[in-house]
Amino acid sequence: MTAAYRIRNLGCAACAAKMERKIKALPGVHAVRVNFLTQRLTLEAEEARLDQLARAAGEIIRKIEPQARLQLPDQPAAKGATP
Amino acid sequence: MTRRATRIPLALALLVAGLLLRGSPAPSAALFLAAYAIAGFDVLYGALRGVLGGQVFDENFLMSIATVGALALGEFAEAVAVMVFYQTGELFQDYAVDRSRRSIAQAMDLRPDSANLLVDGQARAVAPEQVQVGDLILVRPGEKLPLDGQVVSGISQLDTAALTGEALPREAGPGDEVLSGCVNLTGVLTLRVTRPLAQSTVSRILEMVETATDRKSRQEAFITRFSAIYTPVVVILALLLAFVPPLLMPGALLSDWVYRALNFLVVSCPCALVISIPLAFFGGIGGASRAGILAKGSNYLEALARADTFVFDKTGTLTRGYFTVSQVSSLELPPGRLVELAALAEQHSLHPIGQAILRAYDQAPDPARASQVKEQPGGGISALVDGLQVVVGSARLLKDQGVPLPEDIPSAGTMSHVAVDGAYAGSILVTDQVKPCAAQAMAGLRRQGARRLVMLTGDSEAAAQPVAQALGLDSLHAGLLPQDKVCQLEAMLAAPGRRGRLAFVGDGVNDAPVLARADVGFAMGGLGSDAAIEAADIVIMNDDPCKLVTAVAIARRTVRIATQNAVFAISVKALVLLLSALGLSTLWLAVFADVGVAVLAILNAMRGLKVPRENNACMVDSPSPQPVAV
């Protein structure tokens, strides 16, 4: 099962690469792509674990780039944010 | 980051004031520190947060160490200048990335904001998501088709350029399937919606382009791996450079070597490297989609740039897939009568050959004149027409029916034989036509270094040979079943000494396994065909073979830009590292090697958005295309 999420305020290409490495290391992640240009996280994992892994990925993203935020499906986009 | 845009001039002003007041150390130092704080507080804060969170080696941290180091060495003005320069570079970089993101989004500005839903004959503007399959929508001239549908009423010209890159408008009238993303030019159309927004052509194209850069090119994979090692290595070298020479070399000044090491730290920032390649592919994929070529991944563009073997399916790829009667040879009956008998027998046929015979008959067949119509296994039909027993089909079928055949029966191309009342009456030759642009496309591919052009087809050797000859292909494998095509392709892939990549070009309908097996699978005429879009790596939206040449040109240019960017970024960094180690560089130069290079790489990548001229090569620089009957 693959799911895609937006990352807002992703500012640095090297950080995106680093996020990708760290998220890939999470147990249960089959494949991951942090795309700096499209500002998307694509996560492949078992469906049951996807939510929990997305949250963990969000934590990693915030740690590497404090102003970047993973937009989880249950958190609607902030007003004025680009869709 | 508009705040950065106001902070930078302010810091700059304070820096200039500080420089002017150099004579009096205390006030100028205060001005410099103020300027430094204004320019760099977020960098320092980010570095602090990073360190607390265990993130060393990020850009904030490296810049902070470098500038704090400069301050500690008493180089106040330089510390401020570096910070200001760095922030300016970052601002440019953000701006450029943002611009390129947006220009790609604009290039694919296909999605309309609203649809005119018809309720009781009244048009009401609603969001396209709300329209259901089966609803009627109205599209006025000048409007974009919001959803895929079928024309119910109205006749108009449609501009499909956004989907196919094709300049000529297409006519649409009642019964025609039309696709979202086209622009309605002349008349008012009423459409019955056939797909919901999420599955519409536009949504799928956008989704495809958006995910395309998720598939990394090898160049990108290399540069990300490289940068992951590069930064720690340079930082360690910086540490060694700062402290080892002063310990070992008599007379070496610690401050001198620390300054050199600070240069290293600035140059060790990896972003310029990491962004240089994917952005080039992003631009290339955007540019390709403007030309009606959808690449599903950076990796496919990269493979295409290295392709030297192109393998083609015949029907629908090199030929039009539209059969016409090109020759009628009759023994005794007038040829017109032979066609009439065959057409009346074939009048319910859906087979392309039957259809071609019906078109040749050129009048509405009278159903009452044919009875006992029977499809014969193995391709053919028998019927009682005007009281005569007529059989139309292959020589084999006629033989099976006990019709004595003449000795010198011709067997070229796709030939239908006709028997009347058990006697051989003649034959009708039905042929496909080579696409007008196919020859130029082959020439264009050769010009771009294609070394082998091969045709794989299920048709007979006799039907395929003239096409292969007309197009100057290197080899031909005819009479293949779908699984044979895969075997042939496997053999070519396994050929010893193969260096370049292999691309297969098909219509995406029956050749999914071959498309998947090739290094790069092209589907032609993919517009609106789900199967093609699913199976292929690169989809050519219309059915013009010249787009292949454009696709190769775009792929080559993309890889060239990516290589330029990587080589440029790495060599500038290497040069500045060398100069720094020798004490010949300044922090200014080091900052340029970081953000300046990134900005230049971004600008270079933006060239990829332009559609190359090769697109028009078909119409301009070659003799006018002659369709070749086969």
Structure description:
The complex is a heterodimer of chains A (83) and B (630). Chain A contains two helices and four strands; from the N terminus they run βαββαβ. Chain A is an alpha+beta fold and 83 residues long. The longest helix of chain A is centred in the last third of the chain and has 18 residues, at 47-64. The two termini of chain A are 23 Å apart. Chain B folds into four domains: 1-106; 115-196, Calcium-transporting ATPase, cytoplasmic transduction domain A (Distorted Sandwich), CATH 2.70.150.10; 291-320 and 435-555, 3-Layer(aba) Sandwich (Rossmann fold); 324-430, Calcium-transporting ATPase, cytoplasmic domain N (3-Layer(aba) Sandwich), CATH 3.40.1110. In chain B, helix 17 links the parallel strand 20 (501-506) and strand 21. Chain B has 630 residues and is an alpha+beta fold. The radius of gyration of chain B is 34 Å and the shape is elongated. Mean pLDDT of chain B is 85; it is low at 614-630. The A-B interface holds A 4, 11-18, 20-21, 33, 35-38, 40, 42, 63-64, 66 and B 46, 49-50, 53-55, 58-59, 94, 97, 100-101, 210-211, 213-214, 216, 224, 227-228, 231, 269-271, 273-275, 278-279, 282.
